[in-house]
Amino acid sequence: MALLTPLDRAERLFAELATLSADVPGVTRASFGPVEDAAHAMITREAVALGLETRTDAIGNLYVTLPGADRDAPALMTGSHLDSVPHGGNFDGAAGVIAGLVLLERLRDGPQPPCDVTLMAIRAEEMIWFPEHYLGSRAAFGVLPTDAPDRVKRSDTGRSLAEHMTEAGFDPQTIRDGQPQLDPNHIAAFVEVHIEQGPVLIEAQRPVGIVTAIRGNIRHRFCRIEGETTHAGGVPRQSRRDAVLAGAELVHAMETYWLEAEAKGDDMVLTLGEFTTDAKLHGITKVPGLLTFTLDVRSQDDTVLNLFEHWVQKQASDIGERRGVRIDLGPYTQAAAAPMTASIRRGLVIAAEQCAIDILELPSGGGHDCATFADQGVPSAMVFIRNENGSHNPAEAMDLSDFGHACDVLYAWARSYLKV
User: Which InterPro entries does its entry note (predicted)?
Assistant: First the structure.
């Protein structure tokens, strides 16, 4: 019988993960839910079988470690998350965790590294469940807001983060106390492998990307335009307080701003993921009096984000006053942009050249836990894997050979970095 290779193991784990989290169409691994727990248990089982050390912190993050010669030296870390969006794809997040396991298995069979090498399977990265960006990694560093366990509710249950953590066997008091589980001074570097969430690598016909920066974002989840619901035939234009037309004007103004920003060379993307009237109130014979929407703007440059935020608030006020409606963009969250460490990026490019793998350097439009590490001063970088059909949908299509190329780049870089 042929020995199981690290990539054989990876293929088996992807298949097992798809089965245990199947939720037609796609997969669902809710943050701090039983399926996310099962995914963590699967990685723990494999790590133990490989003779690796495992531990789980008070937040629920899993650490799998190949011991180094100097256990007190700052560790080399890799990892990603195991939760998914509802009815998502099987590879978002999970590819980085399984790539980390491949790395540890390959390093295990060579000389002992000079420091610990640790894979971190991170909890609750997908903001769709709990509206706090990078929840698991920020909690690990003790920088999540201390009121988050009791303030933040899960989208599908309406129950608090504290309730879900306690139910899963973890300790929300750790977050309330701001107690860190990780010390950035004890981390030499962090590299996250992740599928690309856009079409850039597909269109460039490159299997692997090296990320230049993770875009920061400003997100408004609860935008409202309140006008007046009136008769579609009986009320003339000048007497209307039409929420939809006010929203349309605001959207047009935002797209114009976006086009002008691109023309200036600014990095920016803008999305209205929801834009809807109230199904209980709207109708073909009614002037709509209420519109709700979401707003997500991202950039590699925090200045671009802040300028847009100031501009859009003024636009909302001006359009609202002119049209006789109230436009309230509501509270927002902001995640800072995270440039990747130039020396690690260069090392990854060299590793790809040594492996004869064509790469492309590109920004990450999506947010990733790697940004938390970078924000804490940890030298950080990301490796993207070509992935057809985008992410956060059941049609994610990462080819195992592309996954293997990314694993080769990570391994070659790690060996050079560790000098083993």
Answer: Amidase_Cbmase, Bact_exopeptidase_dim_dom, Peptidase_M20
